Amino acid sequence: MLEHLKKEQINPSIIEEIKKYRQKYADTADTSQTSLRYLYYGKEIWEAAVHALLCGENLLLAGSKATGKNVLAENLARAFRRPCYNLSFHINMDASSMIGNDTFRNGEVVFRPGPIYQSAVDGGFCILDEINMARNEALAVLHSVLDFRRTIHIPGYDQIPVHPATRFIATMNYGYAGTRELNEALASRFVILQMPSITQDNLTRLLLREFPGIKKQFAEQFSGLFSDIEKKCESGELTEKVLDLRGLLDALRLIQNGLSPYPALDMGLTNKTFDAYEQTLIRDIITTRISKKTESTTIFS
User: For position 135, what pLDDT does the model report?
Assistant: First the structure.
């Protein structure tokens, strides 16, 4: 991961601070060598996020879809070489889902730790995904974990101090169905990083890494296609339903597997909206980038 940071031209002094952090908490480091599925591209965002975590802050990544919030969170955990725990929030989230609850084991009632507890004990990075999906009442249990107290109180068991290496990284989409305003008391416990949309150049780099067999000219065309759709969404001509980076990647996997480009793009992008006018507009955008005569074998070498 540090090699990736060097390629992103991250300030060398920041990389040295990460190395010092790794050495300081080497006894609890995550030594797994599994490769990350995606890498995050963006020098300014990388530097801001790393500075926040080095200062011991909790980090909230806010932004629209397809901005790489979860990718960056997982990349940060790998860069700092920490165990990573994921917690996806929903409307029925309660304290036991986050901290842990009682369960039976070998005829005895024992405590089964949740992601927050495990992160606090192991010195891990806990990713609080879509934190504004849960009710603010349920999130109150996090207050003592995220502020200067850095403790978890477990009724009937103990009060656990949070490991000094532990960091909490939350993500949120603002304005989505099912989301709500983040409580001020909770928001004040984070530094907030607004995530920008991926640039066309960085998306090309992502496609070339994810699909080693794709020809560069087509990687540029597909990243341009995504950029064109994004501009239409910004101007209000399309809804954000069709701005789906995961859908573009899915379409490319289908093409790589032999499906013709147009049916694949329909499945990955066009059909994400059920409005006939929007579908026609998306197909027109695709036509400007990808010829109807193009075959899957032309795109991948």
Answer: 77
Alpha helices in the chain (DSSP H): 2-7, 12-24, 43-54, 69-79, 95-98, 115-122, 136-139, 143-146, 184-187, 200-210, 216-234, 245-256, 261-268, 276-289, 296-299
pTM: 0.86
Q: How far is CA 27 from CA 82, 161, 261, in A?
A: 11, 18, 49
* Secondary structure string (H, E, C) spanning 166-209: CEEEEEECCCCCCCCCCCHHHHCCCEEEECCCCCHHHHHHHHHH
pLDDT the model gives residue 177:
59
Rg of the chain, C-alpha, whole Å: 22
Q: Compute the CA torsion angle 81, 84, 153, 160 (nearest 10 deg).
A: -30
Place of tokens 């920041």: 14
Q: Which residue has the tokens 């990083």?
A: 193
User: Which of 166, 22, 41 has its CA nearest to residue 80?
Assistant: 22
Q: Look at strands 151-154 and 108-113 and give their pairing.
A: unpaired
**Cα(255)–Cα(207) distance, integer angstroms:** 13
Quote the pLDDT of residue 200.
Answer: 92
**Rounded distance between C-alpha atoms, residue 173 and residue 6, angstroms:** 30
pLDDT of residue 218: 94
What is the identity of the amino acid at 296?
A: S
pLDDT of residue 301: 81
Task: Give the residue carrying structure tokens 């994400």.
Answer: 272
Please give the single-letter amino acid code of residue 234.
E
Can you say whether the dihedral through the CA atoms of 205, 208, 210, 215 is positive or negative? positive
What are phi and psi for residue 85, nearest 5 degrees? -120, 135
Q: For position 179, what pLDDT does the model report?
A: 66
Name residues of the chain where pLDDT drops below 50.
Answer: none
Token representation of residue 99:
């901290």
**CA 264/CA 161 separation, integer angstroms:** 51
